[in-house]
Write a structure and sequence with these properties.
alpha+beta, Uridine Diphospho-n-acetylenolpyruvylglucosamine Reductase, domain 2, Uridine Diphospho-n-acetylenolpyruvylglucosamine Reductase, domain 3, Vanillyl-alcohol Oxidase, Chain A, domain 3, 3 domains, 5-stranded antiparallel beta sheet, 12 helices, about 25% helix, about 25% strand, globular
């Protein structure tokens, strides 16, 4: 049957299977989970054929597009890995400010193409994130504090259902599939072959200010940052990072920054002026203000400082509306135990919470906290995963939930959707995928 595929089918034991299983994973920590079949799709029709093969052979399906899931949700024991990373076509309608993209399209590549037309889409914060998983889980993208999660700008999908049929879904047809696809993440019960997007005018000005503070002023920094959060304009993405050995200074330090996307330089400068109100500004080790930048400069700078290639990762996250006073004890424990470079913690001052369209995505908060442990030695896997999980357990009593991006539900199950939306999603799963052909969310090992 494999000669009908435009792509390649590997069965366990075949030459090339292990390379196909690992694929283009960002995380060098590849789980010991082995699907029976890996299908590297070469066309949309391959997706249809693969789902029908899975039905015929009784295989459950997991999907991979960009391979950037820290927890490798797409790697499951047995069943089929449907790898759509090669589906990288897109089309842009400049006049209508719309586009369609295949799931394997890398967000950075899309925005490079859009830049030539003065257009923009809120893609991910790492250069190699594929749009398939990113959009399904919600899409925590650039300028999303203003525009909402990227899935809010998905106007329709083309999807292969559990029956092996290719259908279109939007607000007027197959609307329940459309509702679920915007936020269900790895729990979506279909294989999306095309996303239809509403584009944005490209911000005319991108600026940033960057401050490096010693860890000794951590209490003052977090208290001040939480206090100014309601005043921060939506065009700014205010961030606080904690990492060791920042710019040659030993020990944990704090990096405060505010990437800003505006229509004018004056608007950007006015937004960034709020970062100058820090009460311990005079304690800054370094201070760079009103730096003109570009999206790729922000992306490459983040990867150089925080997200190193060919390393092992463990990650977890939490949404919270807690006060700085409530959060600080856990922040101190993170600072005291933070692993080596480039392991880090990230705060995003997200709120006030946005009104969202009616879609599965339904979890947000005033502050987003995420921790990332990064290392090289496979013998240290358990230690680093335990550090991440334990630090998030510390914060869990203060948490609203998590976002489906930097999570690890197999290590720390926690709510990722409102109870009402999760019940609705599971009802739709029972309707559209009663045989549970598509894998749902990861669960802790028995």
């Amino acid at each position: 049957m494999t000669d009908k595929f435009d792509g390649t089918v590997f069965r366990r034991g075949d030459a090339g299977y292990e390379e196909a299983r690992r694929g283009h994973m960002w995380n060098a920590r590849v789980p010991a989970r082995y699907p029976d079949v890996v299908v590297q799709t070469g066309s949309e029709n391959d997706v249809v054929l693969a789902v029908r093969m899975a039905r015929r052979e009784g295989l459950r399906i997991a999907m991979r597009s960009g391979g950037h899931s820290w927890a490798a949700n797409f790697l499951r024991e047995r069943g089929m890995l449907l790898d759509m990373g090669r589906l990288q076509e897109w089309s842009i309608n400049i006049r209508a400010r719309t586009a369609w993209v295949r799931p394997g399209v890398i967000g950075t590549d899309l925005n490079r193409a859009l830049r030539a037309h003065g257009l923009f889409f809120p893609t991910g914060h790492c250069m190699s994130v594929g749009l398939g998983g990113f959009l399904l889980q919600g899409g925590f993208g650039w300028n999303s504090r203003l525009w909402g999660p990227a899935c809010a700008s998905v106007t329709g999908i083309d999807v292969v259902t559990a029956d092996g049929e290719l259908v279109h879904a939007d607000a007027t047809q197959n609307s329940d599939l459309y509702w679920a696809a915007r936020g269900a993440g790895p729990g979506f019960f279909g294989a999306v072959t095309r996303f239809h997007l509403a584009l944005r005018p490209r911000p005319k000005v991108m600026m940033n200010s960057v401050y490096h503070y010693p860890i000794e002023v951590m209490d003052e920094i977090y208290t001040w940052a939480a206090a100014i959060r309601p005043q921060l304009p939506r065009i700014m993405e205010p961030l606080v990072f904690m990492r060791r050995d920042l710019f040659g200074h030993s020990g944990p330090g704090l990096l405060v920054m505010g990437p800003t996307m505006a229509d004018t330089r004056e608007e950007a400068v006015a937004a960034l002026a709020l970062l100058e109100t820090c009460p311990v500004l005079d304690r800054a080790i370094s201070r760079e203000v009103n730096l003109e930048t570009e999206l790729e400069e922000l992306l490459s700078g983040g990867e150089q400082m925080l997200y190193w290639k060919e390393h092992r990762y463990a990650a977890d996250n939490l949404w919270t509306n807690a006060s700085a006073r409530e959060l600080l004890p856990a922040m101190h424990r993170i600072a005291e135990s933070l692993p080596g470079v480039p392991s880090h913690m990230m705060w995003i001052l997200w709120g006030p919470e946005q009104e969202l369209p009616d879609m599965a995505f339904s979890m947000q908060g005033d502050i987003y906290v995420a921790v990332y442990s990064v290392w090289d030695d496979p013998a240290e896997d358990r230690k680093h995963q335990a550090w991440v999980t334990d630090r998030m357990h510390d914060l869990e009593p203060l948490g609203k939930g998590i976002q489906l991006a930097d999570e690890n539900l197999a290590a720390r199950p926690f709510r990722f959707m409102s109870e009402e939306n999760l019940a609705r999603l599971e009802s739709l799963r029972a309707k559209h995928d009663p045989q549970r052909r598509f894998h749902s969310y990861m669960e802790p090992a028995a």
